[in-house]
Amino acid sequence: MGNCTLRQDNYDPTVVLSRQQFTFLYPIGKGGFGKVWKVIMKKNKEQYAMKEMLKARIISKRSVHSVMNERRLLAMIKHPFIVNMQYAFQCRENLYLVMDLMPGGDLRYHLGKNRKFSEDQTRFFVSCLFCALEYLHVNNIIHRDIKPENLVLDAKGYVRLTDFGIARVWQQENGHETSGTPGYMAPEVICRQNHTIAADYFAVGVIVYEFMLGKRPYVGKTRKDIRDAILAKQVQLKKTDMPQGWSLEALDFTNKLLQRKPQNRLGYGGPQEVKNHAWLKDVDWGRLLQKTHDSPYIPKSQDNFDANQVSNDWKDEVEKIDLKDVSTQNMFIGYFYDATLPSHKPNSSSTLPSMLNADQSVNISNLTK
């Protein structure tokens, strides 16, 4: 596996992190760069999810900036509705990202099994997601890849947000940042325009629509097809589209999030707009944050993932990368994190100046212009 004790910036020489400090149980997921393992840290006996990412694939896919950006952002944030980073380290061949273990699986897996969700289930999922988004947005961070695959359940059925590879600290000129998942990307992002936190709320609208009807509002075989569909017609739900048991408030909520023009979209003026909508008026946000509310959807007790998908190998070709080359390894300088170190605690000097605790808020007028 190569040398797994590479020196990092901010590295404490008394602390060594390596693959050998974990017991690998079995893979529970698969991403673009490697597998996600269920592991146990030998020292504290805690279970975690570990992303093992091949450096050669990362470089071949031109994704070094993405994985390094994710580690930097995760070091800045900590929240009960986000899958938090606990450790990060590397060896010659791989990067390792150790995260909170979410045994409930992602909502794409559960949507595939259930086809749809009820209104109560959807409202609960969205409320959890909103808690994470509010925290990010008041801290000037746009996630930019909200989709069911990135919404994972804990054992109690609470949703947490994950995958910060294309998340960004907001900048006024960001029209060049067009990464995302077609079908969930806001029109302003897919059309290469400057965008704000409202882009995340468009994706929330797509998710509610999908959970309600079992399909997305804008579909196509290619990114261009989806872009053309968005530009061709403003999707709006009608009363006749609503499944039995769903409310008019849910219809209004979805339609206001799916507005193509961001200035007309619910959430453009900030998270409080979303929170104040009639569909969420009965949410007890205090109980939700304390996680004392019973979830209307409880995943089964064992791990929830598609074993066939996890076992599949990649079919694409990757470049041959010389991992012994110093300049290659220098691309990953700084890929280290240990949540137990005082210098790596969120809200320390290593974080953004505006970092807040989960129960704080700020004026985000700049973000919504």
TrEMBL record:
Task: Give the family per the record.
Answer: Belongs to the protein kinase superfamily.
Q: What class of enzyme is it?
A: transferase
Catalytic activity, EC: 2.7.11.1
Q: Tell me the ranges covered by the Protein kinase domain, including all copies.
A: 22-280
What InterPro entries does the database record attribute to this sequence?
Answer: AGC-kinase_C, Kinase-like_dom_sf, Prot_kinase_dom, Protein_kinase_ATP_BS, Ser/Thr_kinase_AS, Ser_Thr_kinase_AGC
Domain named AGC-kinase C-terminal is located at 281-347
Q: Which reaction does it catalyse?
A: L-threonyl-[protein] + ATP = O-phospho-L-threonyl-[protein] + ADP + H(+); L-seryl-[protein] + ATP = O-phospho-L-seryl-[protein] + ADP + H(+)
Please give the name of this protein.
non-specific serine/threonine protein kinase
Q: Binding positions for ATP?
A: K51
A Gene Ontology BP annotation from the UniProt entry:
intracellular signal transduction
Q: What is the lineage of its organism?
A: Eukaryota, Sar, Alveolata, Ciliophora, Postciliodesmatophora
- One family name in Pfam for this protein: Pkinase
